[in-house]
From TrEMBL:
SUPFAM superfamilies: CheY-like, Nucleotide cyclase. This is Stage 0 sporulation protein A homolog. Keywords: DNA-binding, Phosphoprotein, Transcription, Transcription regulation, Two-component regulatory system. It comes from Thermincola ferriacetica. PANTHER family: REGULATOR OF RPOS, TWO-COMPONENT RESPONSE REGULATOR ORR33. The modification 4-aspartylphosphate is found at residue 57. May play the central regulatory role in sporulation. It may be an element of the effector pathway responsible for the activation of sporulation genes in response to nutritional stress. Spo0A may act in concert with spo0H (a sigma factor) to control the expression of some genes that are critical to the sporulation process. Residues 158-313 form the GGDEF domain. GO terms for biological process: regulation of DNA-templated transcription. SMART domains: GGDEF, REC. Residues 8-124 form the Response regulatory domain. PROSITE patterns: GGDEF, RESPONSE_REGULATORY.
Length: 314
C-alpha cells in the first residue's frame, strides 16, 4: 500500500490551471486532491471531509491567503492540519507573514513537482508522528500503543502484563472545576505512572496515554503488584490537594444533574485492570482489549482505588 493512500489534499487557489497542475502532480503519487477557489468553497469541502493537508495560495479574491490561514488555524476542524502557503513571490516578508499567520511551510511558484511532493509528504509524515503522541502528557497515543501491544503478543514465549488505568468520578470533577484543572489531574496521573514504572518496573516497560483519563502500562507479571500498589498509594495520598478546602472539609463535591438537582460525588479514585498471559495464551491485541474491558468494568464497580488481575486460565 502506498503511504499516500486515502490521504486528502485541499488546494485553495482561484487559478484553475494551477489547481490542475497541482492535482495532476499529487494524484500521480496516490493522493486524493480537491480544489477550492476561495474561503467559502473551501469550508464547504471541509464540512464534508477534513483534509490531511492544505495548499493555500497567497493571492486570492476577497480574502488573501494570510487571512484564510488565520481563520483555518482558529477552526477546530483545521487547527491541526498542516498548511503550505503558495506564493509567486520569493520575498522574505511574504514568507514571514505566512509563518506568522500559522502556516507550516511555503513553496514559491513556479515550483518543481518533485519538491512539491517531497514537502507534502514531509508535513504529512510529521503530522502523523505528532498524532501518535498525546499533546497534554507527551506520552505515546493509540497508534503507538496498539503497535506496542501487538509486538508483546506476537512474542509467544515472553510473559507480559498490560495495565489499564482509569479515573473514577473524573467527569464530575471536570464539571465542577473546569477542564484546565482537569488537565492538571491528567498530568499528575501521567507523572506518578511514569515515576513508579521507572522505579518498580523493567527498563523496557512501556507507558502510554489512550486519551482523556485513560492510561496504559505494559510490564511483566512479576512487577504488577509493586507498580499498582505504589500508584494507588501516591494517587490517594495526593488527589485531595486538587480540591478546594471547602470540598475537602465536606468530603465530596456537589454538581447538578440534568434536572438541576444537586448530586454528590466522592473524590476521584483510580481503577487499574490488569491483563496478562501468565495463566493463559492471548492470541492478539484485540483479545487484550476485550479482557481489559471486562476487568475494568469489575474494578469500577468497587468503591475507592483498586487494581484487579485477570487470573483466569482461559
Amino acid at each position: 500500500m502506498q503511504e499516500t493512500a486515502q490521504q486528502r489534499i485541499l488546494v485553495i487557489d482561484d487559478d484553475k490551471f494551477m489547481v490542475r497542475i497541482i492535482k495532476d502532480c499529487l494524484e500521480k503519487v496516490g493522493f486524493i486532491v480537491y480544489g477550492a477557489e476561495d474561503f467559502s468553497s473551501a469550508m464547504e469541502l471541509i464540512y464534508q471531509m477534513t483534509p490531511d493537508l492544505i495548499l493555500l495560495d497567497v493571492v486570492l479574491p476577497k480574502m488573501n491567503g494570510f487571512e484564510i490561514c488565520r481563520l483555518l488555524r482558529n477552526d477546530t476542524r483545521t487547527s491541526h492540519v498542516p498548511i503550505i502557503m503558495i506564493t509567486s513571490k520569493a520575498m522574505t516578508e511574504d514568507k514571514v507573514a505566512g509563518l506568522e499567520a500559522g502556516a507550516d511551510d511555503y513553496i514559491t511558484k513556479p515550483f518543481d513537482p518533485l519538491e512539491l511532493v517531497a514537502r507534502v509528504k514531509t508535513h504529512l509524515r510529521r503530522a502523523k508522528q505528532e498524532k501518535a503522541f498525546n499533546p497534554l502528557t507527551g506520552l505515546p497515543g493509540n497508534i503507538v500503543i496498539e503497535e506496542e501491544i501487538k509486538q508483546r503478543v506476537e512474542v509467544s514465549n515472553r510473559k507480559f502484563a498490560v495495565l489499564y488505568l482509569d479515573l473514577d468520578n473524573f467527569k464530575a470533577y471536570n464539571d465542577v472545576y473546569g477542564f484546565l484543572k482537569g488537565d492538571e489531574v491528567i498530568k499528575f496521573v501521567a507523572h506518578i505512572l511514569d515515576k513508579n514504572v521507572k522505579e518498580f518496573g523493567n527498563p523496557d516497560d512501556f507507558i502510554g496515554h489512550i486519551g482523556g483519563d485513560d492510561f496504559i502500562c505494559i510490564t511483566t507479571p512479576d512487577k504488577v503488584d509493586d507498580i499498582c500498589t505504589n500508584i494507588i498509594e501516591q494517587f490517594d495520598s495526593t488527589i485531595q490537594l486538587f480540591y478546594s478546602s471547602e470540598d475537602r472539609r465536606r468530603g465530596h463535591i456537589i454538581t447538578k444533574d440534568r434536572t438541576n438537582q444537586d448530586v454528590t460525588y466522592p473524590f476521584m479514585s483510580i481503577s487499574i485492570a490488569v491483563v496478562s498471559n501468565e495463566n493463559r495464551q492471548i492470541e492478539n491485541h484485540w483479545r487484550v482489549a476485550e479482557i481489559a474491558a471486562e476487568m475494568k468494568k469489575y474494578a469500577k464497580s468497587k468503591p475507592g482505588s483498586i487494581y484487579v488481575k485477570d487470573r483466569r486460565s482461559r
